[in-house]
Amino acid sequence: MTQLQEQICDIYDGLQTKLNNEDACHFLCLCSIAHESTGHPVDVLGTITKVHRRWMESDYFVTNALAILEMLTRHKWTMRKESTLPSIIKDNEYTELLWENPKTGRQHFTRRYVDTVKNSKTVRDGYVKEYRIYTMEV
Question: Which of 21, 23, 74, 129 could be a cystine partner for 100, CB 3.0 to 4.6 Å?
Fold first, then answer.
């Protein structure tokens, strides 16, 4: 893990648990991707205010992930979904994992090295349904 990834872990690890919100995982993963890609921390609360009702519903459900990333980084982004993690992740690519718990039907987003929920049952009892690869155009 890089020093920047360690810094991101310090900020985002368990943050969703602290916020006591079940649905903020995708949004927080996007904030951590913006942080990692730019090297600058994201003002999470300020970003919520900016994207609420535009690209995120009141329950933190993200409706336009690429628009959020573009606003936070001032770069264009693309996203592709993969069933397995590619063997090579390029320097301008960032991963997000979509987990699913077959017992509960619940889904949860994480990064490969950080989870916004402490002791997630979806991660513990589930499987990675898909890998989302976000590519920042340079």
Answer: 129
